[in-house]
Amino acid sequence: MIFAVNRSFLVAAVFTLAGGALVAQQSPAREELTRGLALWDQRLSKSAITALETAAKDPATAADAHEALAHIYSFKGWQQESTFPGWHDEPEYRARAIDELKAVLKADPDRTSAKLAIRTLESIADADAVDPAMQRPEVRTADARIEVLRTRKPEVPARQIFAAVMERAKLQADPAPYFLGAQLMNERGAYDQAIALAEKGITVSDRFIDENLGAYQMEGKAQAAHRRGRATGADLVGWALVQKKAYARAATTLEEAERLWPAPDFSNQYHLAELARLQGDKASARDHYLNALSLAGGPAPLREEATAALSKLYADSDKQPAKPFDAWLESELSKRRDERRDALLKSLVDRPLPKLTLTTVDGKPYDIADLHGKVVLLDFFASWCGVCRAELPHVKTAYQQYKDDPSVAFLLVSIDDDSKRLQRYLHDMQFAFPVARASKEDMERAMGFNDVPATFYLDKEGVVRYQIIGTEAHGDSPKRVSWFIDQLKRGT
Fold it and tell me: What residues contact 8, with CB distance under 8 A and at least 6 apart?
């Protein structure tokens, strides 16, 4: 049965505790309760939990503090998925949420909201799906206000947008308003304000991630989030410096952003290209424009601008062009793809596959040794991982090339700890090859990865020859599988 789970308790009902008691003179415990609630409004969960745990030790505030903790834990356990970029549910908090509600009733046996909440959470335990969490109404209103101002350019002055961005920043401690504000200030020529907002965004981003580390599920994903936040801020600062014609500082900052990005970023490469063009460095500009256009993403208007700028550089080159621009561009992008392929095929790992404890999806033992003698694609994934969900359709496509080849096998290994979520995902995907399950911690130790997707290619002797961890930005995914499999089939 699919329950239509209402989010009323999970999002709002716990704040029935914020009644007259909080207006009274503040004891130290009640101060911690008030502080914990304010920190949770900001979504600074680590500090909020610490404050509320302190408040829970005082009988006068125990019931309110435990109920607030139950609210946080239910959000983290059931509704955290995709609330912010890179966030995922933490199922280990689900039992803790119910335990906190039982603690509420121990402190205040007549509290109706806690009794209702326990019934709600117990019904969720059997649900196939739970409504996603929504931002607080005041945050949604502030975001909508910025979006309206953003689209009414150029008549809206920068100071009005800046004020709206800062008002949104007060409501919640995530870095989004700072980075968006920096982008909007850059567009309106308010470069000093852009730099200040971007630099503040870096600090806010680091704290926000550290306050919510568990939401990223894996150390590698948290590290990537840190790098992404710092890179975003540095790129925005660097672009503002380009507009200010502070080219030396801009180069240092944009190059730092390039180093920080977990995967190559279109905007950063475009900004580096523009900086080189403005400085008269045609070779470097051409290289960065090609880097940008070799990526799968990037806003269409910027891709068009990069293509137009590159076309002008090509036409203005010292040598007479040997072929039309479109043909030259295609050949250059193909050459870069071939260079990536050759580099990957040289990145040999060559280590025996360790002993892995795997089960089938329905809990029976699965022995990967049965695949000995075949070239094997071994892919570790999680249904909560957005990058995995983006990559696995390409694996399905690649499988069609090898489905009738007895010398090749595909095996997916889920590290999910939420069986219902995994079953929903597998039902939707209908993979035509085996899917096994394993402990996330065991696989991290055995295989040495801290991020997913993590894909390993085994030769016929069961030796890991290649590994690819994390995201892929160039659009090579549909072809990349065959690069490795065909190489191993040839025995090279």
Answer: none
Residue 344 lies in a domain: no
Predicted structure pTM score: 0.92
Q: What angle do the packed helices 266-278 and 219-243 form, to 10 degrees?
A: 30
The model's pLDDT over 15-27, given as tens digits with 9 standing for 90+, comes to: 344 444 444 467 9
- Whether the CB-CB separation of 301 and 279 falls below 8 Å is answered with no
Q: Which of 7-11, 16-20, 110-114, 156-160 has the highest mean pLDDT?
A: 110-114
Q: Count structural domains, the chain.
A: 3
Residue 45 host element (H or E): helix 45-55
Residue 453 lies in a domain: yes
Q: Do 299 and 445 share a structural domain?
A: no
Instruction: Identify the CA nearest to 486 among candidates 459, 454, 456, 453.
Output: 459
Within the chain, how many helices (H) and strands (E) appear?
20, 8
* Domain match, 217 and 310 both: yes
Alpha-carbon distance of 86 to 152, in angstroms, equals 30
The span from the CA of 373 to the CA of 462, in Å, is 7
Q: What are the pLDDT digits (tens) for 457-469?
A: 999 999 999 999 9
Long-range contacts of 303-308 (CB under 8 A, 24+ apart): 303/266, 305/270, 306/270, 306/273
CB atoms within 10 A of CB 123: 12
**Alpha helices by DSSP H, 172-321:** 176-187, 191-211, 219-243, 247-260, 266-278, 282-293, 300-315
Instruction: Give the number of other CB atoms < 10 A from CB of residue 225.
Output: 23
Query: What's the rounded Cα separation, in Å, for the pair 423 and 415?
Result: 13
Looking at 61, 89, 124, the residue that finishes a domain is 124
Q: Same domain for 180 and 306? A: yes
Nearest to 306 by CA among 279, 324, 331, 325: 325
Tokens for 29, please give them.
């415990």
From 313, 339, 365, give the residue that closes a domain: 339
Question: Residue 17 has what DSSP assignment?
Answer: G
Q: Which domain holds residue 401?
A: 351-489
